[in-house]
Design a protein that fits this description.
By secondary structure, the protein is of the alpha+beta class. It has one helix at residues 5-18; strands spanning 24-28, 34-39, 42-52, 55-61. It has one domain. A four-stranded antiparallel sheet has the order 1-2-3-4, with helices on one face. The radius of gyration is 13 Å and the shape is globular.
Length: 71
């Protein structure tokens, strides 16, 4: 379930367009089923690839720490 270069580019362009932010980028991880999501070079989350019954979907997972939230 590794990501192809074309797939990474499509996902990155999708994220940049959807969130109107050219600072979003993707980077390979040690595991083949996921990519790191970065915002201006800072890690913010992970995209997982899921292939089931011939269909592919992606899950963006972003943890938000309570201490990072403004009061």
């Amino acid at each position: 379930m590794a990501f192809s270069a074309t797939e990474m580019t499509k996902l990155q362009n999708y994220l940049r367009t959807t969130f109107a932010n050219p600072g979003l980028s993707l980077r390979d991880r040690k595991t083949a089923d996921s990519l790191e999501v970065l915002l201006n070079g800072e890690f913010i989350g992970v995209i997982y690839k899921d292939e089931e019954d011939g269909e592919v979907s992606y899950d963006f997972n972003m943890a938000i720490l309570e201490m990072d939230l403004a009061d």
